[in-house]
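User: Structure tokens for both sequences below?

Assistant:
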Amino acid sequence: MNPLFEHQLQSARRQFFGRSATGIGVAALASLLGRGRASGARGPAAGAAPGRGLPGLPHFTAKAKRVIYLFQNGAPTHVELFDYKKRLSDLHGTPVPDGYIGGKRFSTMTGKADGKLILAPIEHFHQHGQSGAWVSELLPYTAGIADDLCFIKSMRTDAINHAPAISLLLSGAQPPGRPTMGAWLTYGLGSEVENLPAFVVMTSVSKGTTCGQIFYDFYWGAGFLPSRFQGVKFRGSNDPVLYLKNPDGVSRQMRREMLDDIAAINELKLRSFADPEIATRIAQYEMAFKMQASVPDLTDLSKEPQSVLDLYGPSVKEPGTYAYNCLMARRLIERDVRFVQVMHAGWDQHSSITTELYTQCRDTDQPSAGLVADLKQRGLLEDTLVIWGGEFGRTPFIQGDIKDRKRWGRDHHPYAFTVWMAGGGVRAGMSHGETDDLAMNVVRDPVHVHDLQATVLHQLGIDHERLTYRFQGRNFRLTDVHGRVVTEILQGLPGSTRV
């Protein structure tokens, strides 16, 4: 951009905020500074008061207080893991019948699906628990908690590539730039914790994977909401938050006094221009100061019983692994963090179903099941909603040469996939929805990603049509102009029990 033009734009923005000092700026300042002054702090840096969200929220009694989203980046293959179809084995190596693919759009790697060969699941399925849920031998630990889970086997989406599909599922729109689910919840319901962010993100990748999926920052962004609602990413190391520690020679008291002075300067600027991003800066400084004390305690696993560590598997003590992040998720929600987004990449098996899928399942199966079991034994599962799933499914037909088993793969499939949920007022031990006999298309109780979003918000006491934010002349919401609550999977409401 032309530097002069950019300066003019910024000047106009500053003038707008300066003239609007009696509007949004004062509201932001009041919400941020109220608690700091009430507690006798020197400056205004104490941040927003815990529990303070929008007036009138929640809209009704919530079944869940917090969410852990175990997001499997790259799209797990539903036909390999949860959606058992005997006919896939019967038709292995034969072309997909025309009636299943007519008029459907697939990724450019597949192009037209005409003539593609059916690929049978690479491992056997069995039914588990009193619910009789079908789970692959690839996921023995998940199979062991089948009666605690609600499988949604009729998920569908509009996107056929990873980043747009993830953005659609997490923010309600395929292009980046909208607020994500954790940001909406934090904006609407506020925070119940003083010394940790309300929205935390952790990422991991299986070792040795050839999956090239990238974790984009907009997967946990605040979009057009004030940036203080965006997710805070914890790194996979013993030092999870950059620049949190004081430099050598700087004591905690010195840091406190420095922050108070910086806050006083920022408050003067805020009063002059009423820019809500200045208020965000004040809150972020204060949060960082508080996290200096809370994060070391959070990451100290020395008091975790060995029996609990064993639930999550052998890599639980290794920072940056999926198992470690699952344990951190439990420790975070114990401390009243509202939304924890655990993202694990490596599920994009275009040519590695017979190799890397085993690695993905081994890395994620035990920690996912262990997290549910750990929450349950602590009494936290009842009001914690756990979600496991990716952005779409994988094709029932093969990608690659069926004669070369080592290179078997499956392409992107938006027309049907499976997620599971646990806790948070969701019915346990049930499967909702159904695909056809090739797991190609949804034939009963379809659930769009907007429906999933509406259901998550509902469980936290939010009417998805009423949680809005006005931007560029219209009211936006997480579910855009779509979405219905999937009442059939909720406790106390009529539902499905078919498996």
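Moving on to the next sequence.
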Amino acid sequence: MSQLENAGTPENLALPLKVYWQPGCSSCLKTKEFLLDHGVPFQSVNVLADEAGFKELEALGVRLVPIVARGDTWANGAVFRDVAQVAGFTYGGHTLLTPQQITEKVLLILDAGQRYLAQIPNDSLDVVLPGRPRSYRQLVYHVFNIADVFLDRVENNAPYTYDALKSVLPTGMTTKSDLMAYGQRVRDRFAAWWQRDGATTDFTQPGQVYYGDVTLHEVLERTGWHSGQHSRQIVLMLREKLKIEPDTPLVDDDFAGLPMPKNIWDNERSFAEPSYAETAETRTPQK
């Protein structure tokens, strides 16, 4: 959710606009590009590299990114209507693909994720990405998990939370085969949900998600472009880090109609950087 009190007032608009983000975060990149596309200057704060910036974020009462803020007024970067309000301009939105079109793209992305995973050597799964503490294993899991969290919301009315989307593998998912099986289960479940409920689901209903007031249609669209953006990052990782040509890589036409970011990794940090750390937490700790 956002804190929009005083947004748009002369006093608030006189304060500097800040964007709190981290590398490799698809929503962070999309938020920065959104503001740049509208000619809005801002102070860029990478919370993984700027400890003071992270403390500023905590002072707002939030511990997630992306956040766009002027003083104590802030918006979750996933809701562009709120971002525009804090930034001080009007945003009219964009045309969404139909739910069926988005679903077809999600299935295409989930299939691609499994192909890419099959190509990653076992001894490379826990290599850490540049700029943030996320491993190759976690990146692939995240592609599958984004769709899984959406399904939990529409099938079980489960809370759609920030923590649910963290790319930390559950206990017991230890091998590539485990992860492949998970991806296949999510893919099959997504297809079955659409066949069973797609035609009767009210996509104008509230999305009931942690990041703001959006429709279920918008949550489905985000499921598509969010997982799609991370699938693009896997392609980049295969080519640039592992020197492996991806098996039937998705291309721009496959994402047509989804609001994909212009950049694949980031517009400020290079994917050519070394790993963020030697190791990353790849699964929940044993209790």
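User: Anything stand out in the second?

Assistant: The chain has a mean pLDDT of 95.
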